[in-house]
Structure formats: C-alpha cells, structure tokens
Batch of 2 targets.
Target 1
Amino acid sequence: MLEPKQIKEASIRIKNFVKNTPIFHSSLLDEFLGGHEIHFKMDNFQKMGAFKIRGAMHTVLRLIENGKKPTSIVAYSSGNHAQGCSYTGKVLGIPTTIIMPSFTSPIKVQATRGYGANVILTETRMEAESLSEEYAAKGATLITPYSLDDVILGQGTACYESLEALGEVSAIFTSIGGGGLISGTYLAKELLCPSAKVFGVEPAAADDAKRSLESGVIFKWESSPETISDGARTLCVSPNTFEYIKKIDGIYTSTDEATIYWTQWLTHLLKATVEPTSAMCMQGVVEYLRSCTTKQKILVVISGGNVAASTHSKIWANNQLDVIPSIAT
Amino acid sequence: MLEPKQIKEASIRIKNFVKNTPIFHSSLLDEFLGGHEIHFKMDNFQKMGAFKIRGAMHTVLRLIENGKKPTSIVAYSSGNHAQGCSYTGKVLGIPTTIIMPSFTSPIKVQATRGYGANVILTETRMEAESLSEEYAAKGATLITPYSLDDVILGQGTACYESLEALGEVSAIFTSIGGGGLISGTYLAKELLCPSAKVFGVEPAAADDAKRSLESGVIFKWESSPETISDGARTLCVSPNTFEYIKKIDGIYTSTDEATIYWTQWLTHLLKATVEPTSAMCMQGVVEYLRSCTTKQKILVVISGGNVAASTHSKIWANNQLDVIPSIAT
C-alpha cells in the first residue's frame, strides 16, 4: 500500500496544473438535516469538469519527473477519465488516443475530442479495454482509470485540499466506481485527519464493491450495470483499490430514485451542476446521520459535473422539487 | 439621477452582508465564440441565490444609517426580491411581510418563508402591489423591487465588484425586468469603465423596455407576460430606471427557445444552475459579437440561480444538448 505522506507530494506535483476547487455549503441543507455541517468539495468546477484530471495529470507528471515522458498516451473510459487524459495530453503536448464504449454520452465524446484526443468508439467496455491494451503493446503509455498507484495518489488530492481547508471532519463520503477516488481519499484522511470515518456510496444496481466487501472476493459484472450514476458503471474494483476499500468504514447504496432526488436538491441548494454519481453520496450521508447522536462535520466529494442532456431530462422528468422536505428523520 | 461614485459607497455599505461572488469563464465557450473573452459574474451563488439581496440590504442599511430603522418591512415580488427582503429582515432583525402573486414558483415561496417572512399570496401582481401599499400606509417600510434609488445602488454593486476584479471590459450585458439591475450597472461602469457599452436583454414576449425605448414612453403590460424568464415578467420599467435605460447602448431580445438553448449550455459549460432570466443574456452577446470586428472582453451578470423544478423540466424536455454547436457565425 501507498504511504499517506505520498498524497502531500502528489498535491505539490499537480498544483500548477489543476484547480484547488472551492468548498461549498448550504445553510438551508444543514438546517434541514438537523444542524450538522455538510461541506462539499466542488470538483465539478475542476478543469474538464471532474476530479479525473487529478489522477491522469499526476501519473504523467510523475513519468516525466522520472525521465520517462510518454511518446503517446492511450486510455479507455466511458467519460471523465477520457477527458482527464485528453486534457493532460493537450497540456503536456503528448498525442493521446481515447477508446470509449459507444454508450458514452455524446457530450463527453465531443469534449474529449475538443481537448485534442483521437477518439475511437467500441461496442462494449470490455472491447475498449482490450483495444487499449493493443495500443499499449505498440508503445503507448496506458493510463488505466483507477488501478495505478499514481492515479490513486492524484485522486486523493481532492480530499487532501479539502482537509487542508476545513481542518478536522468527522466523516467523508465519496462515490465508488473503480475505487480510485475512495482509495486516495482514505490515504489523504490518514495523513491529515486519521480519526475521520470514510464511507463509499454505490448505486443500488451497481453495488459490486459492497458485494466484494461482504464476500471478501472481488465481484465483477458481466456487462456494465444500468444506472443513472454513469460514473459508477465500472465492472469491478481493482485488486489494489480493493485493499483500501477493505479499510474504510462502510458502503451505502442509493437507488436511482434517491439519486435523482438528491441531484435535484443539490442542483437547487448549491446552484451547481452535479453528476448523479456525486449526488448519490447524500443518500449515504442521510443514512449515516440518522445513526449519529452527536453533531457531525461531513465532507462530501462532488466528483464531477458533466451531465448529458438525456440525463438532465431524466432527472427533471418527474418535476418533484416543489417544497423543501423534512429529511432530518 | 444618482452619481456614479455612490455605487462605491453602496459597495462599502453592504460588503459585510453580501458575498463578493466569483467570476467564471469557460475556455470552450470563448473558443466557440471565436476567441472573445466572456466573463460571468456568478450572482447565482449570492446569498439566497440572486443579486436581489444587494438592493434590499442596501436600502435597509441606508435607513438604519440615517436613524430610520424600519419597525417592519413589506414587499411584493414574484420571487427573488421577496427572498432578498426576507433574508434582509432576518439578518437585521426586522419583521417582514412578503406579498406574492400566486403564480410564483413554490420553491421561491418556500425559501421566502424559510428566511422567516410572513408570506401572503394574491391572484395577480397588481393585487400584490396594492395590498403592499395598504401595509405601507399602516407604517411598514415598503421596499419596491427596482424603483428606489437605494435599490438601484445596491444592484449596481454586482457590476462594481466585477469591474474591480476584471479591469476594463468592452461591453456588459444584464437582463431587464424592472430595470434596477441595468440602472445600477450603468452607474457602476460610468465610475470604473466609462468606455464600456451596456446592453440589456429582454424576453421577446416581454420586451416592454425595448418598446418603451423605441417610443419614448413607458410601455406597460396589462398582465404579466408569459415567458420562461420569470424574473423578467414585470409589467413595466419605472420612470427613474427608464432614465438610465435611455442611456444604455441597446436592448436585445431572446425567444424562449433561444433562452432554453443558452440555459442548457451555461448549465453545462459553467457547471452552474443559472436562471433562464440570466442565461438569455447570451442571445444578446452572440448577436452583438456578430457585429464586432475586434476581440471583445464581455461581462455578463448572472443574476440568479433559483429555478423551479417545473422550469428545469421545460428546459430539458427537448434534450437538445448533444453536441457543441458552432456559434461563431
């Protein structure tokens, strides 16, 4: 396992290349949740709209530092990791090929191309993975979305910056896709606030990390599970992220209905575009708070804000957000 | 008319009570618009989610400064001004009654009550106006939404803060409802950047300021015009805001279709919840840029982010945002 102090080094390494995004909170939300403090790390305002730039940029900067600047980059991704790699390649002047499953939202494809990458679409995620390995065999540097140590360290800088700004917190919530974000988050809190609990949140229909944790063996979907939280449609966590996931304090799940509810409310309360994959963390926060007997100071990592128009349509189709609910009980 | 230097005094007066909201820009948008710089003053992140707190707070602080602290406050408003007055009353410890037309979005009613005001709903805006005058006759201090000098000065602080941060700009765009925001904006730019042009934008279906400007006489709707830009459903500008409107450089209009288009794009590019009333400014920006032969540095005041769920549903019903358009020509 990585050492927590390496997160600080990663933060120094990338700080001129990524934004130290702001931390928001909503006094209305705090009040409705019973007087706890909920702080949101707004990485939806990150360059390219998501935390993924952190891991991709950190990986390539580390290679350059070690005298191994890639001649080309390849990555497979259904979205934000693709944009993170594409943006990294553009900023550092390295030709980049991104292989994406064809269900990727068109706006993410367009943005990935907009940052200069060559984009190839494949039918399934598994085909994307195997094609990217072919590119790597021919000399391209493959940046996988969550299993590389340098990706994990980069992703952890979001939590590191948050704890530097907020001081101690009682609990931290992030979504779990492949596990890179929560692994880095675990390391960051071990460095700056070891007493903080760390919780992951998964879509109820894509709860492979929870199943893996319960059985002790990594559970893998045969095909990408269906959920509005498109950033969490990964087939499984990786062996190394699973090691960090075993150390966190628990995994909550959120139905798509609950996720849509929280996406609506965060859109309204934070005045921000928040991916369902991020908003679903609130379902975990509320379930956790119901079990608490003391006032909590919570950090929620808002991982991104790249939302397809079709997803916006689904979020607002039922038009629920008409009165502020009582969610304290 | 007010003197431009009074805007600076207003800014000092309110600065401990309102946020100096951030200025955002989108490099993708700048590129798609042909290399101009477009800067957005994000008053959707203002306390209570809109610029209206500025004018309301400034008006009451000025009264207190002059030894005339109100014993109670009354206001009529279909939305953000109501929340501005309610929040002002709460912060300054003054009982507040808000009279709202019943078409007001439920979430704005709820938020207004949430800040502690007594809320009364009436059938029409005109009934709301006359009932508020009854309260005023009984001793309450009536804060009208746009015609008071101190409201105009407060609203102008958004532009004042923007120009302090950005330096010189070539043109400034704000929406026009009753005209308070654009009047204060005109004063702010006269103080800090007299060479800047100022443009207003109205919904095509609620273009009373444009009609007034063309005829030289204030045009008044018989009832609130229908448009998705609910912050611009005012019946007419006031005699004093009309004097400032005569001095600006022009008024553009936006159809609801164009407004929805720009609301979608700003949601995506700025990762922010933006009222259609604010987003419609982009229609004016694009029309203006088409007439420009040199690179422009533009300021757009994003006036608020309080959007009802039913409005979100309308914005995303047609699911347009699938590829980034070429909007340079």
Target 2
Amino acid sequence: METACLVNGEVYAYVPAGDRGLAYGDGLFETLVVERGRPRFWQGHMDRLQRGCSVLHIAMPPQELLLREVLTVAAGRSACVVKIILTRGAAGRGYAPPRDGQPTRFVAAYELPADLGDAQRRGVRGRVCDLRLALQPALGGIKHLNRLEQVLAAMEMRAHPGLEGILLNQEGFVVGAISANLFLVCGDTLITPRMDRSGVRGVTRNLILRDFKARTELRRVTPDMLEEADELFLCNAVRGVMPLVEVDGHEWPAGPVTRELQSWFERRAGGA
Amino acid sequence: METACLVNGEVYAYVPAGDRGLAYGDGLFETLVVERGRPRFWQGHMDRLQRGCSVLHIAMPPQELLLREVLTVAAGRSACVVKIILTRGAAGRGYAPPRDGQPTRFVAAYELPADLGDAQRRGVRGRVCDLRLALQPALGGIKHLNRLEQVLAAMEMRAHPGLEGILLNQEGFVVGAISANLFLVCGDTLITPRMDRSGVRGVTRNLILRDFKARTELRRVTPDMLEEADELFLCNAVRGVMPLVEVDGHEWPAGPVTRELQSWFERRAGGA
C-alpha cells in the first residue's frame, strides 16, 4: 500500500528546503500505531510532543488537528504506523529562530513491522554499541530530530544483524536500546534508567512508570546492574514489550514479570 | 533579490518529506561566500564536507557538480552566501540507513550579512551561554545537521541582543562562539580549542592552523585562559576575523596580532 503523506494538512510529500527541521534538526517527532482508526496511546504521544514543544519553544498545534491528520493518513488500513514530524518551520539562514515562524507538520503512514510476535514471544538479543551517547540535559528525554547518534549506532549494528544495539552514555551508564527503553526486573521491582541527560522518555515507559508507580525506580544503571537483574525487557510504543534475553553473552529468562508487563501492554494497547 | 535554490540540480525549493536530513538531521552542510563568481576557500569547504561524508558514510558528490550548482545559484550576484546541504537522502522509517540510498543535495544563495565591516573594525562583545555543549567524539568537528544545541544557545542570546554567545562544553572548557571559532593570542602564539569532542572545525580555523602552523597550538581552553590572553578573536568563513573585545565584563584590545590575521584573511579571501 502506498504511503499517505500530509504536509500542513495538504496531500503532499515535500517540505520546503529552507525548513529548520532539515537545516538544524529543529523539531520533534512521534511514532505511533493506529489500529482500526484508533491511535494507540494518543494522549501519551501528545503529552510528550507538548513537553518537547515547551523545551524547544515551538508552538504545539491543536491536538484535534493532529488527530484528524493522523486518522486521514491511516484511513483504509486495519493497522499501521503513523509518524508525526513537527518542525519550527521554514526560515532563512541562521541558528536564531524567527519570532513569527509557523511550525511545519508532516504526518505519514507506514506499514507495521512484520516480526513483532516472535520478538515478543521469544525475546530479543542485544549487544552493547561502541558508540556512547553524549550527555545533554537541555534536551534530555524529548524526542527531537537530532538523531545522528542513533543513526551511527544503527550503522554499527549492521555488522551484527538481528541484534538490538544497547547504548551506554559517555559516563558508561546504560541508557537503553537504540529505539526502545530498557527495564530491569529485580524481584518485584522495575528499574529503568533516568532520561534526564540522554535518551528518550518513551510513551510506553511513561505509562509503565504511571501504572506501576509503587514498583518502579528511576536509577543511573550500570552494566553490572544488568547482570544482577532477574529479567530484562525493552519497550516501545510500536514494538510493545520484548524480553531482552541476552546481551554480549549474559543471559536472562523471558520471566514472569516481563510476561505480566506484556499482558498489561496488550490490555493498554487495546484501550483498557 | 530572490533566493535561488537547487535540489539535486533542479530549480526547486522542496525536499522529499521522507528525507533523512529532516527525519534525523542525517547530513552535513557548508556555508560559503561567492564573490564575482568565485567561491571563497572552495577547497577548504570541500575537504571538510568530504571529511564529514567519511564520518557519516555518505557518498560525497563530485566536487565539480557541487561547484557548478554553487555557481548557478550565485549567478548574477556580485557577492552572496551559498549554503550547501548534503543529506543521506530519502528513505523509509528507521535509524539504519538504506544501503542503496542516494544523497540529496540542496544548494541555495542568500544575501551577505550587512554588518561585517563594523564587527571587523571595532570588534564584537560576548557572553558565556548557560547552555553547555555535549561531548560526542564520534561527531567532533564535522558540520553535521544536528544543531539543536546551537539553536537553543541562539534563543538564549535573544535576551542579550548584539552579543556573541560563547559556548563551553559540559566539562567547562571553552569551545567557541555559536557560529564561529575562537582564537586566543598569547604573545606571538595562537591558541584554539580542540574540536575533537564538540564544536565545528571551521574552514577559516583550518586555514589558520595550516598557514600559521609554527605559531598555533590546539588546547583544552579554560575560561581562565581567556582572561590571561593578550587578544581574542573569532573567525568564520562568512564573517572573517573579528576581534572579541569583551566577554562578561573582561576586556581585550583589538590588538596587532588580530589585525595581522585580518590582513591575512583579506589576502586569502581575495585568492592569495
């Protein structure tokens, strides 16, 4: 099926070459699943986009407008991935944004990834990337368009097909996978790395932190802590909850707490 | 005068919304001056672009092709700024680049900034930004499209109109101005910060390092070292060499070594 695209609400697949999203990565994005005309975790995606807009001082478009555009590109598909890119808009040269700029919205539908069931049932295997994420508290946690680190990490992982790249930051703390958040299961407790200096606060991660508040802890996570965990799992709004069953030779079971979180995700994704 | 744009050689001002330059800032740029049909420091810009392509594994277009496009957009102007954006090109979703991708070239002409003479004669004043640059050795020195830090710093400097934002990195070392490199003059010696972990290796900086090899030193520069310098100057391929005569209340003269470098720049820019 062809990809349906809207730029600022018009059926169009191009953005002005002077857009600051292209010039500087000056913008944000969201990637969500739409099933039978219902965007999954809509409010979670909108809350994160709003937070990114506040950090970058970009005017957040009305949520109803974005919702209408998401439903338009998803129309006629039983399930798809929709990506929203929101930039500061077109401008001339120079880092300082114009005060009267108009944000650019790009909304497009893509096929769902095919191999989700297997990753969820049997788990995924990982490898710690050589690339270390920089620390930037001013951008911590938001899903901005400056993603060269993730591109370099994904290129590094080409030499290890089928493995998930696990990212540490410059200080050696674990951040997560290249495009998924990481949780450690220790007894009944769910530990996940802080996202205040690098990494993205995933929508699924945010929901887990809310729904399992009493059982979750935000920590600086060392590689040693992974080895001591009972189970590990990755999560992401498109791929759901996936057991992480091996990293660089260390193994963990796809255990009962991860299975519990998978059931929770299925209920949540279904609208519960 | 209207801005002339070429996208992949066609007179066009739009790029595919699926371009990885927009999605991830997955690309590079160059900003150069073209005077009377002659691009200033052409080889320096091409060498830096080539280096960035090597780091990001993007195929460098033939230099003759880029030259032709630069001259096309500059045609009919006595002097202008030309910006080249080179991205990894259009692709589907996902950080891993396609193996068969075709880079996108965007080449556009802009007016020269108006106030250059004054900044060069009387110097500029600066202020240390609150924003600190992250350390990322994998991207150090190249002029990539992930520029949100510079955007945030430029937004911060709106509260201080007319001042240059001076950037430190997360460890507190001085990197340079938001869009210019910094040199310290200490006696006869020219000291400039290393660009191996953050910042851009400017084309003018590279030329100074080559032409004044015996007198230059690459250092980790602390704010204290600025205070002990005899003179400071900023440099950039468009704005030339500018005395930096004040930072947060500390003052330096627009001294003889800076004036020497300005004469050098004028000769170099004129083709010597």
